[in-house]
Structure formats: structure tokens, C-alpha cells
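In this section we walk through a basic example: taking a raw amino acid sequence and producing a predicted 3D structure, encoded as C-alpha cells. The instruction is simple. Fold the sequence below.
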Amino acid sequence: MKNISILGSTGSIGTQALEVVKANPDLYKISALTAQSNADLLIKQALEFLPSMVVIGDEGQYLKVKAALSATAIQVLAGVDALCEAASIAEANLVLTAVVGAVGLKPTIAAIEAGKDIGLANKETLVVAGDLITALAKQYGVRIIPVDSEHSAIFQCLVGEDNNPVEKIYLTASGGPFRGKDQAFLSGVTKAEALKHPNWVMGAKITIDSASLMNKGLEVIEAKWLFGLEPDQIDVIVHPQSIIHSLVQFNDGSMKAQMGLPDMKLPIHYALAYPQRISSDFKRFNFMDYPELTFAQADRETFRNLDLAFRAMRKGGNMSCIINAANEVVVNAFLQGQIGFLQMSDVIESCMDSIAFIAEPSLNNYLETDRYTRIFAGELVTKQVNYNQNIKY
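The resulting C-alpha cell sequence is shown next.
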């Protein structure tokens, strides 16, 4: 029996993880659940799974959640800092970090320092401070088990290959809804168009990241830290069918690929059960349904976010923290209709050029970089909004 805390239980990954838990009641028990603002769903989940603790990030909804769970023994907490308590709750031995954004950094650190294994679905934690997180995991002897489908694929391909050098890894990308389009087309795309991912059902932020290929860029940086790779050992290949989730090439030229239908419950199921493989009733892949698997080079010139992420990875220091913070700001601005699709890359690059670079940052340096970048990116967005309004006028 594994006791699991799920940070971000009302999001896409969190809800699917709870489906896996529900299907395997003899294997898993929920210790804690957290959500930022979806109080109604959090309450429903808490009443069904009866964790020891729930956390609602939006403190204004604390009384609502507290009242709804008053007949239970569940401890109810509120606020971002309470995430750390859910992450380090004594009874849990696995923490699934499924929150979105850099907010996952502190609770992930708290979980590691409490000796909990990490099911990592919050890629931003490694993007922001991969050196600190991997060093802490080694220091406290905890495992980081990736949940992203691409990194889960690499992780699975490396099982049993401990002493065999990796020459290169290939992260696959579907190409998103705008695969093959040029910048002239991208300059006019709408939020609704960007939110129509061809293969995956995900939250709004990650869906926009997938459309801009920033999600793949963040995964490139995440892969560097998860697997101890150099930048030249990581490449991205566009694979529209999303059947091959990623590949590993070894020093003898042999390659391993992990395949499966595009369903996030598969890597979630693997991460929760690791190191075992537990039987599931998930739909099975049929080769005849996919008679052709195709591949193409990623277009880093048109989709500049991917190129910016490679630049940040090569630069090191706090540069990946800068692009992550700037990206969170511009994605929100795009979703609010404040800036255009291509303007997101412009703001991110301006932040990379303007925010002070720190070669060997501390945790406090990362937190300050994140804060300064968000302020600066917000100012750039405001200027762009004012410019756009003047043009329209």
C-alpha cells in the first residue's frame, strides 16, 4: 500500500491520477489533496478519498472547504505555504507534484527534505532550479520518477541500462495544432485555435505551451537534469501521431523507444506503481490503427520558444528560471487576449536579455529571479497592450 499526496488534484494530471487510485484501492491510499481555486471539485474529491489533509490555495475559499468537510476528520489548510505541509505529511511515501508553474518548487523541496519519493508532473520545478532539486534528491536518497509522457518514456527505456552510456535522447513532439504553419499564419492565431491540441487533453497553460513548442523547450531543460545529460545529447523530433513517446540512443548506436496510445494515465500508472508494472484495463495500441508513423525536424526558427529554451539550457545559471517566469506571464496574457501568439516569444527574449544573469544561483537567487522576471515581463506586456490599443485607435 502506497500513501500518496497529490499536489494539484483538481487539474488534468491530478484528476487522472485519482482515477488510477480509484481503480486500484488495494494499492494506494490518498494522504493529502491540494487545489488552488477549484474548491467544489476539491471538496468532492476529499469526501470520496478521505485524505488526512486538504489544502485550498485560495484563502478566500477556506471557510467554504472547512464547512463542507466539517463532518470528517480531514484537516483543512489554506494558502500557498500550506502546500509544503501537504508535501511533507508524515504518512505519505510518494508525492505527486501536479501543480502548474514555479509554485511547485518549494513544496517539492519540502517533500524531498521529508524523504518522500517524487512523482514529477511539475516540470517547472526542474526548469527553475534543476541543479538544486537533483542535488537534494541525491542528498536525501529519494527517487524522482517523471510523469510527463516523454520523460517517463526515457525513464522506462533506461531501466536496466545503468552501466550503459547514453549517446543521445530524442524527445518527441506532436507539433501541436500549428504544425507546418509559418510566422505569417501564427501572427493571427486566436486563443481558441491554440487550445485545440490534436492529440492530448490538457489544461489551458500547458496546451498553449504545446502550441508554441515552449512545452517541448521546458521538457528539454527538464531532461537535462533528470538524466544528467549535456545539451548536445538532447534533441527534439516532431512525431504527429504521438505513439512513440521518446527514444534513447546508446553509445553502440542501438536505440530504444517507448510506445503507447496518447493517454496520460499510462505514465501516471507507471509512476505510482514503480518499480512494479501493475495490470490495467487501459485501451491497447493496435498497429493497424496507425499504419504510418512519421517524423520531421522541429522548426526552431518559426517556433522560437523552442530555440529560446535550448539557448537557456546552454547558458545555464538562472537563465531557465527567467524563461519559465516570463513564459508564465505571457501565456496568461495571451489567454486574456492582451498580446498576440508571436509576441509571447518577443517578451520572453527581452527578459532573457535584460534580467541579471547569475551563473551559480542559490535558492534565494532563483526566487528573486522569478519575482523580478514576472514584474519585468508584466511591464512589457502592459507596454504591448498600450501599443496595440493605440494601433487599433
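Looking at the output, two observations stand out. The two ends are 63 Å apart (CA to CA). The mean pLDDT is 94. In the next section we compare this with other chains.
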